[in-house]
Structures are given as C-alpha cells and as structure tokens.
Amino acid sequence: MKQKPSELDLSTLTPSEKDALILTLLARLEVLEAMMRKDSHNSSKPPSSDGLGKKTRSLREASGKKVGGQAGHVGTTKKQVAQPSRIENHPLPTHCERCCRQLPQEQACVWERRQVIEIPAPQHGVIEHRTLAVVCQCGQAHASVFPAGVTDAVQYGPNVRALGVHLTQGQMLPFARAAELMADLYGLSVSPGTLVAWVG
User: Fold this and answer.
1) Number of C-alpha atoms within 13 angstroms, CB side, residue 84?
2) DSSP 141
3) What are the domain boundaries of the chain?
4) Triad 187, 189, 194: Cα angle to 5°
5) Which of 34, 40, 62, 151 could cysteine-pair with 47, CB 3.0–4.6 Å?
6) pTM, entire model
C-alpha cells in the first residue's frame, strides 16, 4: 500500500527517493494552484462557484459622462412647509457685543428660517375607559357601558394589534423579531405567542 507523503519517514529515504518525492509534491502543488485560478470566466464552472471573494465584471460600457447630475437636468429640492409642527426660537444675546448695551428683545424679528424634517420618538399611550354610575331619586341605579371590544382590565388596542400583524405578515418579520422590535421602539412587552394569536 502506497503511503501518503505525511506518513513517510523521511529519514529512511535515499537522496534519490527524496528528490522524486519533492518533484511529485511540486507537480501536485502546480495542479492545485491551477484549479484555484479557475473560475466561471476561464472554465466551465458556474458563476455560483466563484465564491464571495470573486468580483463580477460589469457588462456596461462607460458612457463618458461625468459622475453626478448632468448639465440641463432639472433638480428638485425639499420645500419648507407653511405650518411646521413645532417652532423653536433661538434666543439672542442679551447685550451688544460692541457697545455692551442691553438689546431690546421685544423688537426682535425672524431673521432666517430653517426646517428639519423629523420623526417623533415612538411611544405608546394608555387610554383608560371608565363607566359611570348614578342612582335616580326613585332609587333606580343606572350605569354606562364599555365600548365594544373593551373587555379586559388591561388589553392591547386595535392599532397595536394591527402593527403586530403588519410586521409579521406585511414585512415578513419572524414573530420573535417583531416582538423585539415592538419592545425596542414602543416599550411594549408583546410575546411571540400573542402575535401568533393576533394573526389568527
């Protein structure tokens, strides 16, 4: 039985046998390196065998145009809204930097406006439903009733349930990931099992 090179005791080989072994190993190394150089561009291998380290070559030809917007292209820019959600006036200094007199703050006018489009920090709210009771002069007691669907002492509202269904069915998030997202964004401790029940 022929031994592998790693199993040979080199001390028992003659010089000529060692030379032959070296030539054999070099030949095998050359074959292996040739195999490593092959990809879908220089062999019949499929592109999927190229691996992550191989870069695909684009078939597009250079247009010769500069990078970015082209001459004559009509660009668009965001426009300021007439009624912002919130206005923050940034105060003036109290005294003149040249003569040190007190500045007439009541005469200040708007000098420049800049608007920042922002998403409010997500948070959940709690709506408390209360029924009322009263007793008529005749002794008859009357009580109001809760709206349809408000059945438990504490429960999630329709918007929370709709969000859970949307994340799992519309955005295709796993139930555990959707529950984690609702906890991170809104501070709601909804279990994956509850999400499954809402989808049902």
Assistant:
1) 13
2) E
3) 13-43, 148-199
4) 140
5) 40
6) 0.52
